[in-house]
């Protein structure tokens, strides 16, 4: 089964912590969720929680892992996961509003 994005995603590096124990970094963020790079991998369907660090402010989130790609520690390649928010973090809404004001770039084919 494939899932289609229903919200605009923007590449945005945002530090985050999963469970206050595992540091990670987002690759992109949207109102629907985010993808992140991290040393460990989570199974799709796993419930996750943590916080984003935005301008030195912790913004809590809860979500569900939608997809996962394991990394390769020997090749120093991080795992990647996609997380769907259970509820959009209220304090991230200004960030999304600023994304939506920027013009979209068309991909060359």
Descriptive overview:
By secondary structure, the chain is mainly beta. The chain has one domain: predicted glycosyltransferase like domains (Thrombin, subunit H). 8% of the residues lie in helices and 44% in strands. It has one helix and seven strands. It has a six-stranded antiparallel beta barrel. Strand 2 and strand 3 (22-29) form a beta hairpin. The longest helix has 9 residues, at 93-101. The model has no long low-confidence stretch (mean pLDDT 82).
* CATH topology-level fold name: Thrombin, subunit H
Approximate strand percentage: 35-45%
CATH architecture: Beta Barrel
Biggest sheet strand line-up = 2-3-4-7-6-5
Major pleated sheet = 6 strands, antiparallel, barrel
Radius of gyration: 14 Å
Structural class determined from secondary elements: mainly beta
State mean pLDDT (0 to 100 scale).
82
- Give a count of the beta strands, DSSP E runs of length 2 or more: 7
Note the total helix count: 1
What gross morphology would you assign? Answer: globular
**Total domains:** 1
The named CATH superfamily:
predicted glycosyltransferase like domains
Helix share of residues? Answer: under 10%
Distance between the termini: 25 Å
Q: Segments where pLDDT lies below 50 for 5+ residues?
A: none
The helix-strand sequence is: EEEEEEEH
**Which CATH class is shown?**
Mainly Beta
